[in-house]
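Encoded backbone
================
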Amino acid sequence: MEDNKTMELQVSEENDLNEYARIKVENFLNKLSEKLAQKVEREIIKEFVSEQEENGIYHVTVLCYFTDDIMKIMKQLEDKKKWKVIEKKNYIDAPKKNGYRGCIVKIGIPVENQKNETAVITMQIHTIGMEYWLEMEKHISEGKVRKKDKLRNYSEHIMQIEEELLRMKKK
């Protein structure tokens, strides 16, 4: 699914996860770096800019079924020689205070243009369940401490359900 704010890559269980995710991520990032090179030359980077911070950072969300899939994708990103992992945060083992569980990684991708610039992409990689939780958190929390505590608990429940489903998948 694609919109102006976020490009979501949904990993499909029907395909081999590693190969499917690797191809999707590589194709997206390769196309992005090519288009950026063309658009930087013409200074019209509207297609990719709506969620761009002042430092030229683009945002990608990768949705997975299970947390172990997240770790496989992180490994693939780290192994890619063409890109540079600038920063990575693992919130699966140590969730954020609000309950978020997932990984956030910043990747530098060379843009082939006259300036040989690097495009920085921030990837948020989490489960479909966590995506649901994030959307609910945005709409419900808004500064209310009691609600934030409940939302954190719901995040833990979602994680427990995902772990049970993963065990079922492996049996």
Q: What stands out?
A: The helical segments are 17-42, 46-49, 67-79, 128-140, 145-170.
